[in-house]
Structures are given as C-alpha cells and as structure tokens.
Design brief:
single chain; 173 residues; alpha/beta; Rossmann fold; seven-stranded mixed beta sheet; two-stranded antiparallel sheet; 9 strands; globular; binds adenosine monophosphate
C-alpha cells in the first residue's frame, strides 16, 4: 500500500449530506486491511518520540483513527463529543462546519493542565471544527503538539486557521 493507493480508495459522493457538498467517503478505504493499517501507521509516524500523552478524537469519524493512534503511541484516548452525549461535568465550545453549525464537548477532568496531546479527525475542511477543539483543549490547559487528518481539502485553506500548530494530512484534494 502507498499514498496513491490510499487516495484511490476515497470516494466522492456528490450532494451529500446536502446539495453542493462533495462528501469524501472513506469507507472503501476502511474496509481494506492493508489500507487501514497503512493509514494508521503513517499518521502515527508523525508523532513518534514526541511523548504524546493523550490523543483527542473528534466525533464521529475521528473516533475511527484516534484510539488506534493512541494505542500505537502508548497514549490515552479522549473523546470530544457532540452536544448532549457526555454524562459528566463538561466544557463546551461552539463551531461552524462546512455544512452547518454545532457545539462540541469534553469532560472537564479529561485533560490535566500541561498534558501533551494531539488532535485527530478524518478530514480537514474549513478548519472550524479542529480550531474549536484546539480552543477546548487549551481551555482545560492541555498542550497541543499537533493535529492529524487522513484527508485535507486544501482548497478550503483550513490549515491557515491552525497555523500555530503542526498539521499533518496524508491525502490532499
Ligand atoms: P471543517 O470544520 O469545515 O474543517 O469540517 C471538518 C469536519 O466536517 C470533519 O469532522 C469532517 O468529517 C466533516 N466534513 C467536512 N466536509 C466534509 C466533506 N466534504 N467530506 C467528508 N466530511 C466532511
């Protein structure tokens, strides 16, 4: 497997979830063992030796990769979830998406002050979601070492909103 092979396994679904959006569907890639392993290995490679203590995963598709990276790096996994899903005391942040607006939450006691974390999602579009999660993590005192995405929609320039942090993506469109 290589990056070109990975790229070929990402499929465009036009007009999903609404008209005008070209949805990047990663499920054809996820179902292939060598591709899934290669993607996870490549993402983790960027952070080896950086003493990552926690991997912050963004619901929903960020949850596919973040626990794998946590396992690979010997780190813990912290879920950032959509509104109303976490049972305990939490911190909230609002964000805007390529298609809509919402808020995200994390447990107040999930990240201790000074903890070295990375943030993981499947796809970087406008960067609104990732930027909100950076704010959320920093509100709790976490140190953001970098962010990792499988796919980057480079034409949306999401990276510019994250310019103070190392941003890694495997496949750019
Ligand atoms: P953004 O906040 O604009 O960077 O959007 C990133 C979030 O929305 C990620 O959690 C993605 O899973 C999802 N997303 C945005 N645009 C797309 C797209 N074209 N295809 C698939 N997922 C997308």
């Amino acid at each position: 497997m290589n990056l070109e092979g990975l790229r070929a396994l990402i499929r465009d679904i036009p007009d999903f979830p609404k008209k005008g959006i070209v949805f990047k569907d990663i499920t054809p890639m996820l179902k292939e063992g060598p591709a899934l392993r290669f993607a996870c290995d490549q993402l983790a490679e960027n952070f080896k030796g950086m003493k990552v203590e926690q991997v912050i995963g963004i619901e929903s598709r960020g949850f596919i990769f973040s626990p794998v990276l946590a396992y690979q790096l010997g780190a813990g996994f912290v879920p950032v979830r959509k509104k109303g899903k976490l049972p305990g005391a939490k911190e909230v942040v609002s964000y805007s998406l390529e298609y809509g607006e919402d808020s995200l939450e994390v447990h107040l006691d999930a990240i201790k002050k000074g903890t070295r974390v990375i943030i993981v999602d499947d796809l970087l579009a406008t960067g609104g979601t990732a930027e909100a999660v950076v704010r959320l993590v920093e509100k709790l005192g976490g140190t953001v070492l970098g962010l990792a995405f499988l796919v980057e929609l480079a034409f949306l320039k999401g990276r510019q909103r994250l310019q103070n942090y190392p941003v890694h993506s495997l496949i750019q469109f």
